[in-house]
Amino acid sequence: MAWVACSPVLAQQQRQQHVFAFIQNKAGKVGLRSATAYKYDVTLAVFNDLLRARGDFRQQAPELVMNNGEQFVAWMDPDNAQIGIEEKAYDVCVALGADSLHALAALLGHELIHYYEKHDWSRNFIHANEPLDAARKINQLDEGIKQETQADCLGGFLAFSAGYNVYGLMPKLLEKLYKTYGLPAQLPGYPSLPERVEITKTAMLELRDLQTVFEVAQYLSLLEKYEEAAQYYRYILQSFQSREIYNNAGVNLALAALSLFSMSEMPYVLPLEPDPNSRLHNLKGGPIAERLNMREALLTQALEQLDRAIVMDPAYAPGYINKACVLALKREWDDAEFWLKKGKKIGNVSMETDFTVLEGVLSALQNDTVQAQNLWNAAQAEDNLLAEINLDILAGLPREQEKINATATKEKINGVLLDDFLRVPEVEKEINLSPIIIAGVKPYAQSKIWLHYADDGRQYAAVHWCPADCNAPTQSGIRNGDDAGALTVAYGQAPRMIARPDGVVWVYPAANLLFLLNREGKVQGWGAFRKA
Questions:
Q1: CA nearest 298: which of 259, 235, 329, 254?
Q2: Which contacts of 169-173 are long-range, i.e. CB under 8 A and separated by 24 or more positions?
Q3: What pLDDT is recorded for position 143?
């Protein structure tokens, strides 16, 4: 927060510097030695999670430092590209019990946003140009509240992206930090403690909006509303940039374009498809010229988003393979092969066979079916499902359409029927993505309805989600904790299976049901859905 000079004692150990400190406790002791090793290791693991979630290597990634001081709680040092945290602050986070890692992520995320958003710029300019009239004018501007709100909000979203839940945590953490450090409610150069608590509450309202948009975007992708999902991700990018968000926007735009390709134009399965059985080639209609123009525009937009993901992190392999897929759809063979080869050089072992599959697709599309078969055989030997499907296509075995034997169930969760909700959809909070698009969430005791509502209801998608701690059963008796075998007995083999970092989502379009299975094959959440 405040722009402060380090104490003379610390200046004897390193050159004079300025730090962007969470607090300035002038009575606190100077940090003269490193923190306990295991505390540093725990903090470093959280810090690295946040750096990966940010995925921004356009500027030097900061270093984490940790000492036994009691002066700053946490800080951002732009001169040395460091994020610092004190051992005492770590102990305060630990005292929050089950929320300890989330609290640590909140503090570190806050300082990382100060670093990446260059919140030190105006104060650094003032310090370096004190005689200038421009510096005096900038000094008169009170940007502190704006910067702290942004650091809390975007730091919270960064933590959320990395798997930490910091919503509503900062007010409690602030009060505990002030009490433990023995600080008065009013510190020179800072808003008072009650004001800081109110700032964090304002930031949490903004964080809730971003989280809602992100959650709805994920459900839109699952429900194959790709263009709408891309629009949601682009809304997030106005406030928060990361390689994953750019990549998600690009992939969804590419998938929207893919729905405008006929079977003969793109018969093979590409690695960017989240589910190899999802594209069943029921081509969207319309005049041919209009369809071609629309898909070309979508592919161009997809490339723009994927380029930004690669610029943020030149070692981000998904960006390369997805860009190569888009270029393949544009039939720009040389460029597709160039980006494919660059991506392979990164050496992401988990994606190695996906690159091989794409090489096979490029060969097949250019009529080298012998080379395609060899490549897909090699990938299939490594259990790549995409390779197996493409080999079947090459052999002339048709991809079967979904056999719809089930009827849409009338699932009630917490006594709420989704169809009844949609007759008069009222949500806790509306986020207006545009004049005609609204995202929202409606919480219940154990569940939430996530809503996309557009064009006065002519377009919509809604998912009533029962998370891992929800004990409601489906009509067929499936609950969270049941295994994949029980799910298959109740509903049959899922027509669509979509891989996610935390497991796989089984989609039953005819029954309007989604199930999230963790890596152990246990149901960890389920939901009913409707879409226009």
A1: 254
A2: 169/96, 169/99, 169/102, 169/103, 169/106, 170/106, 170/200, 170/203, 170/204, 171/197, 171/200, 171/201, 172/96, 173/92, 173/93, 173/96, 173/103, 173/106, 173/107
A3: 58
Element (H, E) at 514: strand 513-517
User: Which of 326, 382, 374, 381 lies closest to 351, judged by CA?
Assistant: 382
What is the rounded CA–CA span in Å between residue 326 and residue 332?
9
CATH number, domain of 233, equals 1.25.40.10
Range of the domain at 74: 2-211
Coil, helix or strand at residue 73: coil
- Does residue 400 lie in a domain region? no
Model confidence band, residue 278 (pLDDT cutoffs 50, 70, 90): low
Instruction: Evaluate if residue 113 carries a pLDDT over 60.
Output: yes
Q: Is 438 helix (H, G, I), strand (E, B) or coil?
A: strand
Residue 407 lies inside a defined structural domain of this protein: no
Same domain? For 200 and 51 the reply is: yes
Q: How high is the pLDDT of residue 496?
A: 87
Over residues 332-353, mean pLDDT: 95
| Residue 532 burial (10 A CB sphere; 0-12, 13-18, 19+) | middle
Question: pLDDT higher for 167 or 131?
Answer: 167
Which pLDDT band, with edges at 50, 70 and 90, does 4 fall under? Answer: very low
Sign of CA dihedral 61, 149, 146, 190: negative
Interatomic CA distance for residues 342 and 345, integer angstroms: 5
Is the domain of 378 the same as that of 440?
A: no
Strands 63-67 and 82-86 come out as: parallel
Distance between CA atoms of residues 434 and 427, nearest Å: 17
Contacts 24+ apart (CB under 8 A), 390-394: 390/268, 390/269, 390/357, 390/360, 390/361, 390/364, 393/267, 393/268, 393/269, 394/364, 394/369
Asked if residue 193 and residue 232 are part of one domain, the reply reads no
Which single residue is written with the structure tokens 């969470």? 22
Same-domain check for residues 385 and 417? no
Residues above pLDDT 70, as percent of the chain = 87
- Top pLDDT among 210 and 188 is at 210
Q: What is the mean pLDDT of the chain?
A: 86
pLDDT at residue 132 above 90?
Answer: no
Residue 366 pLDDT grade (very low, low, confident, very high; cuts 50, 70, 90): very high
